[in-house]
Amino acid sequence: MSSVVDSQNQQRRVSELTRNTIALILAGGRGSRLKHMTDWRAKPAVPFGGKFRIIDFPLSNCINSDIRKIGVLTQYKADSLIRHIQQGWGFLRGEFGEYVDLMPAQQRHDEHSWYQGTADAIYQNIDILRSRNPEFVLVLAGDHIYKMDYSAMLADHVENNADLTIGCIEVPLQDAKEFGVMHVDEERRVMAFVEKPENPPTMPGRENTALASMGIYVFNAAFLFEQLIKDADMPGSHRDFGKDIIPAVIDKYRVNAYPFLDLQSGQQSYWRDVGTIDAYWAANMELIGVKPDLNLYDNTWPIWTYQAQTPPAKFVFDDDDRRGMAIDSMVSGGCVISGAVVRHSLLFSQVRVNSYTTVNDSVVMPDVNIARHCRITKAIIEKGCQIPEGTVIGENREEDEKRFFVSAGGVVLVTSDMLGQRRHYVR
What we know:
- By secondary structure, the chain is α/β, with parallel strands linked by helices.
- It has two domains: 2-286, Spore Coat Polysaccharide Biosynthesis Protein SpsA, Chain A (Alpha-Beta Complex), CATH 3.90.550; 314-414, 3 Solenoid (UDP N-Acetylglucosamine Acyltransferase, domain 1).
- Helices cover 23% and strands 27% of the residues.
- It has ten helices and 31 strands.
- α1 (2-19) packs across α6 (150-159).
- The protein starts with a helix and ends in a 13-residue tail after the last strand.
- 44% of the residues are buried.
- The mean pLDDT is 91.
């Protein structure tokens, strides 16, 4: 009986922690490594996984973790991101203190006051945050793909009496140069933090592994506000958490690392930075596998989004040389596979693939029409493209590079601008 009571008390405490937390999602970045995919939209607004946008993952994590006070900080070409949030995330109830608020960069201090860095983005909204009187502030990046229970991280933060807790993942030492990397002691206390180091510190007892920041932070709210004000008054600061705030507080305050591990296996949980064309393509291709590491069919942790009302996908014609079918693929609503063959590919909504065409190992975004007699391999076809009849993509790199962008890994990115269709409004 006592164990039941203890469990109930623990659940009530976690609920209290989440109710007193505001989550801030940093969603203002372009993500220039995604090349033409972010010419007309911010990286968090990039479509992913057949029906989602990247930002749906941190937003869904908040809802599933019972954190329902959320601010989304926007800046670069935010129109499609704002419309997506307005259309798909308006179901929270204001009368219950729930919200997803948009917090765009604006003239709050002077006429040049765009967000100067991750810390400055929050500093410029410090009056708004103070008026809402949170006990904790959860800072999230808006451009990663993962499923995470933030309430467990909050509980760990309080249990360890930390001022700041940093979510972290284990990465091979050779990849650590792209991250903020921590040196921790046996109790997970952060002893040093270096941003994108040439010689990353290793984990205790793990010479080939480093502990990298996920860009997820839990702050005691009063502590965060104090440090943001100090940083704003510091000449030469980058106004950045990784470069300035975190290194400045490690020696004087309790900064802990929180490992993002699967609770059952103890292994590293799924987390992807889809910041390059190759990484984006690979993460989408992973979803097609028989048992993908990221389970989108998990009813206990749904990924929420806005989606248009579309009819079911349709596959038509059954002749020997003209059979509409998709094999080892994900096909979204509103698609028509008309006498074409789709293999190991992911199709977003309202895609039409016409007769005698083959699509292999490709990601096809919404509202694309692929005409007859096309052959498309290892490509990303951007939203709204009209692929002309007889087009061949992905078979001759030299020819592809004349018309499209080809990544280091051989993924061909095709946009409507590259096709001469000049559909600047596609976002």
